[in-house]
Design brief:
By secondary structure, the protein is of the alpha+beta class. It folds into two domains: about 170 residues, Nucleoside Triphosphate Pyrophosphohydrolase (Alpha-Beta Complex); about 180 residues, Alpha-Beta Complex (Cyclic Phosphodiesterase, Chain: A). The protein contains twelve helices and 19 strands. The strands form four sheets. Strands 1, 2, 5, 6, 7, 8, 9, 10, 11 and 12 form a ten-stranded mixed beta sheet that branches. β8 and β9 form a beta hairpin. α10 packs antiparallel against α11.
Length: about 450
């Protein structure tokens, strides 16, 4: 492992790469001479410093052809205001399969890779469209490259660990703010001749991969995984110091009788920008709303059964449930047009009130009236519009986050699961669907 903490003590990146190339060749020699690497006892992680050694007692061997892969890992990824935990940057290859950036070594008149780490970093750069990965070192509070144990003599994998939220990391990698992009845009963005798309993927999604079909989920899309080595690498990455454990995802309850129901509500969803997410109070406020409601939001309607699920009121689980009298999807589309009729919009009249941030807005009054006209259930008065934040002490930080131009506002349908509509039933957030961007 080489990297930096604290930043002031960091050698230049060129020096780090020179050290890494030496480590790479020494490790190859050591692995060849000692099979202990296969048992996990080999010192594969080496800190940068005045002495760089993997314990090899042999001179660096001649360069060998092989392949290299870079696993760019962020410690957190915000999805609909909720922290999905650490995430991995993956690319879609021409054949539709997904994998971290990587490829084979080159040693011709145009390219001369001096080590498989150099191969990995070159392929990482090329497959992401010619980006400058060194900017991640400039913009992140910490930056480390760690050789993974899934490496072999001819195929080396490196974890690139940065202290940036996924959206902030994306902005640094591509030198462009893509926070308003839809997931499908990223997944179909051609980056170079070999790369037809990319996405940051929560490690939890990879841990839940279907081993029989060799597939996993990116948001609502099921995609093909190129190699199972990626899953082995993900498990190893989660064991590295400083990499947080993924949150435990609640198991979705069935949408009909026999174990639970789903209820839907209209929410104005709030995803703080990268700078705001660096504040611990903002993250704590989000965490307080995470399990039941999925993060920070303004409630436009309360939760109720979808119009097409009204028949569930005749079941044991659905007794006493309210039912929306109109289409939620159609309302989201109409509501988004209403809120953005004069361009991107977000509330600006905000004030702290204990464990809430209260909001006043003529647009929210129009949205309330539109919801009543659409015959939606449990419509909330615009005069009571607020964002719940868990603790009053979080108010200054959350207020600043709500005013941050980088904070993302969307209108969408929040979905929860619960055992029934009886008093005391505990709800769990399931997902958000049909989101429409409001700001930016």
């Amino acid at each position: 492992m080489f990297g930096r903490t604290p930043r002031a003590a960091t050698p230049t990146l060129n020096h780090q790469l020179q050290q890494a190339a030496i480590v790479s060749r020494q490790w190859d020699a050591w692995a060849e001479a000692n099979n202990a690497v296969r048992t996990g006892s080999a010192p594969l992680a080496v800190d940068h410093g005045p002495q760089v050694s993997t314990g090899a007692s042999y001179p660096p061997p001649k360069y060998r052809n092989g392949s290299g892969t870079v696993y760019l890992v962020t410690p957190r990824m915000m999805i609909n205001g909720a922290d999905a935990g650490p995430a991995l940057l993956m690319i879609k290859e021409n054949n539709g399969e997904w994998n971290p950036p990587g490829g084979g070594s080159k040693n011709d008149k145009h390219v001369q890779d001096k080590s498989l780490l150099e191969t990995a970093l070159r392929e990482f750069t090329e497959e992401l469209g010619g980006i400058d990965w060194r900017r991640l070192d400039d913009e992140s509070k910490s930056f480390q490259l760690v050789r993974l144990k899934v490496s072999s003599r001819g195929n080396q994998s490196w974890a690139m660990l940065v202290d940036l939220e996924a959206q902030a990391c994306e902005k640094v990698v591509f030198s462009e703010d893509r926070s308003a992009w839809k997931l499908s845009q990223r997944m179909h963005k051609k980056l170079d001749d070999e790369t037809d798309g990319y996405a940051f993927v929560p490690l939890s999604a990879l841990l839940a991969a279907d081993q029989k079909t060799k597939t996993f989920m990116i948001g609502p899309y099921r995609v093909k995984l190129r190699t199972f080595q990626t899953l082995q690498a993900v498990k190893e990455i989660l064991s590295l110091p400083g990499v947080p454990n993924p949150p435990t995802a609640p198991a979705p309850a069935p949408a009909s009788g026999g174990g639970g129901i789903e209820e839907h509500a209209i929410h104005l969803r709030i995803t703080p920008g990268p700078a705001s997410m660096a504040n611990a109070d903002v993250r704590a406020a989000i965490a307080s709303q995470l399990e039941p409601w999925g993060g920070l939001h303004v409630t436009i309607t309360g939760f109720a059964l979808r119009q097409k699920a009204g028949h569930l009121t005749k079941t044991k689980e659905g007794q006493g449930c309210a039912v929306h009298g109109g289409s939620l999807t159609a309302f989201v589309a109409k509501g988004a047009r209403l809120l953005t009729q004069k361009g991107p919009w977000h509330p600006s009249d905000l004030r702290a009130d204990g464990k809430k941030i209260r909001i006043k807005s003529h647009y929210l009054a129009l949205l309330e009236q539109a919801a009543r006209n659409a015959n939606l259930a449990e419509v909330k008065p615009a005069d009571d519009a607020h964002v719940s934040i868990g603790e009053a002490k979080y108010a200054p930080a959350v207020l600043a986050a709500l005013k941050d131009p980088a904070t993302r506002w969307t209108l969408g349908i929040a979905v929860i699961t619960l055992p029934g509509c009886f008093k005391g039933a505990r709800a769990q957030f399931a997902r958000v669907k049909d989101e429409q961007p409001i700001w930016p």
